[in-house]
Amino acid sequence: MSNLERGVWLLLILTVFLSSRGLAQESPLMSPLSPSVKTCQTCHPAHYEQWQQSYHSKSMVSIQAGFKKFITTQEQKKGRALNRNELMACVGCHAPAMRFAADEAFARLAHLVKTDQKQALENLSVDCISCHSLVVNGHSDQKPPQKIADYVFHSTIQNPLKTVHGNKYAAHMANSDFCKSCHTYVTPADMKISADWDIVCSLTFDAWAEGPHGLKAKAADQKQCQSCHMEKTKGKAAAIGRTSLPVRELSSHLFPGWHSSEALQKAAVITLDSKRDRKTGAAEIVVTIENRAGHRIPDT
Ligand code: HEC
Ligand code: HEC
Ligand code: HEC
Ligand code: HEC
Ligand code: HEC
Fold it and tell me: Cα separation of 126 and 92, whole Å?
């Protein structure tokens, strides 16, 4: 074979290889709601950036392996594919917008999860609309509007400016109860997978409620989830060209947790103290671990 022929063969093999890889990558499953987070990004770039780094934006991608195990074991047990309601039992929290998706989207969702198509799950997550429109309205069954002008987003700015979407002050978004709708969950008995593997997603609300900053604590000691997980700074709530906007108290959307080494460092204070027994000369080391999180660490 001449060098040229070899080159042609290599190119052919490479093309076949690349196109088969191309086939394996399926198109993403889009959120059934619009506008997308990209629209929010245009005027709320700082909120978007923080949210994108948070695990709320990865809430479908990061559970893919566990979700796959759940779907495959349940299908084996039932001898059929899981239906819409059975899948909603997971994505109700991990991708709240899915409740407005067509039935076909659920079959596709299960397929993507079972075939490890993580990237195709990226557009489904706990996103801006999930918190500021769906959860805050108690997961109402009314289908949300398609146009941004018809939306009313709730949050804790008391006198928000008029803009392309409606705004509404919702004091309860500053309280732990708002987080409770997703941060208290144990798999119901009829969905258990096996004695040695189960999904206990998040019981932080329950542990917080009982803990030193929770509902049973003195008023002065109570701290809401937001005071530890949504740090406050001063700044502008939106950025629109040269339009001048008022300075407000802003809340970080990074939601640090066990994936964040900074949060872990704040979680516990470890002190070492040594005592020596005068008679025997033996040393005793006293280790004190003080839990500074508002709940059990690690959670489950
Ligand atoms: C054209 C620009 C623009 C776009 C696009 C936009 N916003 Fe806004 N948004 C604003 C402005 C301006 C404010 C008011 C800021 C202020 O009063 O300081 C605001 C306020 C808010 C508030 C605070 C409401 C309150 O009462 O506390 C939320 C929540 C919000 N937007 C969410 C969103 C979401 C979610 C999207 C995407 C679906 C979005 N915004 C898209 C400009 C925009
Ligand atoms: C719509 C449901 C939903 C709401 C509402 C919600 N969360 Fe979450 N949250 C999730 C899900 C799902 C995850 C898991 C993401 C993952 O690990 O894939 C998560 C993860 C987290 C984490 C862990 C981050 C990490 O490093 O693993 C923290 C902290 C957190 N949420 C705090 C809050 C706080 C505080 C509130 C209330 C202001 C709140 N969440 C409201 C669904 C929600
Ligand atoms: C009530 C809300 C809720 C429901 C329903 C729910 N989850 Fe979760 N899940 C969460 C939250 C919140 C976390 C984050 C916990 C943390 O970071 O400490 C989480 C975490 C997880 C994780 C670990 C993610 C990681 O980053 O390591 C997996 C896997 C998971 N869920 C799978 C499922 C499956 C499968 C179902 C359905 C059987 C389900 N979840 C139902 C709220 C929920
Ligand atoms: C897990 C739920 C959750 C998600 C996801 C979320 N937010 Fe928020 N957001 C909140 C809460 C809760 C507050 C109010 C916190 C407080 O007052 O302590 C807030 C406050 C705001 C505010 C008012 C100003 C401020 O910083 O306090 C704006 C604007 C906002 N969010 C925009 C967005 C945008 C844009 C996205 C998507 C990129 C987004 N949020 C995603 C829960 C969420
Ligand atoms: C006093 C401060 C404080 C309060 C109040 C608080 N947290 Fe945390 N939380 C922390 C710290 C620090 C961590 C990091 C330690 C860790 O993850 O092990 C953490 C971790 C977490 C995680 C990851 C847990 C894990 O181990 O998987 C979640 C989810 C979470 N918090 C949610 C909440 C929710 C929801 C509330 C309100 C019901 C809340 N937190 C109240 C400080 C707090």
Answer: 10
Q: CA 113, 108, 52 angle in degrees (round to 5)?
A: 60
Which residues, including other chains, have CB under 8 Å from residue 152's CB and lie 6 or more apart? 133, 165, 166, 167, 168
Q: What is the pLDDT of residues 232-272, one digit of tens each?
A: 999 999 999 988 999 999 999 999 987 776 666 666 655 55
Ligand nearest to the CA of 165: 1
Atom of ligand 4 nearest to the CA of 40: 35
Q: What is the pLDDT of residue 33?
A: 95
254-263 residue pLDDT tens: 999 877 766 6
Measured distance CA(75)–CA(90) in Å, rounded: 15
pLDDT at 20: 47
Amino acid at 96: P
CA distance 276 to 81: 66
Distance of alpha carbon 25 from alpha carbon 121, whole angstroms: 12
Q: Pocket of ligand 3, candidates 84, 94, 228: which has the most ligand atoms within 8 Å of its Cβ, to mutate?
A: 94
- Are 190 and 164 in contact, with CB atoms under 8 Å apart? no
CA distance linking residue 199 with residue 201, whole number of Å: 6
CB contact at 8 A, 56 and 37: no
Provide Rg for the chain, Cα atoms: 25
